[in-house]
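The protein record filed here:
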Amino acid sequence: MRIITISREFGSGGRELGKRLADELGFAYYDREIVTEIAKRASLDENYVDSVLEKGAMNISITYSSTMSHVTAINHAAASILREQQKIISELAAKGDCVIVGRNADIILEQESPLKIFVHADMESKIKRCYERAASGEALTERQMKSKIKKIDKGRYNRHALLSAIPWGDKRGYNMCVNTTNMEIKSLVPAVAEFAKAWFGKE
């Protein structure tokens, strides 16, 4: 079973890289499907689930662990969502070769020895990419967009810190770091795919 996890800075193109990489390797791809399944199982609004997982709208304390088994919940709904996330990610990974974007899958699946990739870029490139992919009608100033990027990345950093002593984005926590600054994502995929093949083929 070959598992690739993609952690990424907001606007770095990590989601696109993950999807293209999955297609290149013939792996299953999981991203928003996780949120949808959590909402279905927990009978919760999908936007609320997304808020808890993506924007850090939670108030819980967790003992450092590679699993969620030692969760002490202050916000029971949030803790329930996080437990369900762990269960779903583990179930999806058990199905076979896959690429999973975000959701702290790199930590949740640590015992499965996934290939952990971190995607990052400089702020200018992230802002540009966000504008290129902005929803119709979204009109943020550059300052507002920069603030949004920082806020989302801070949430990801904080959630990661609940589960790991190694900071989010620290190269020590990953097998490969990909800098997408001024790069077209699809041009990077063949090289990343070759790295993945070599990594999974190592003795």
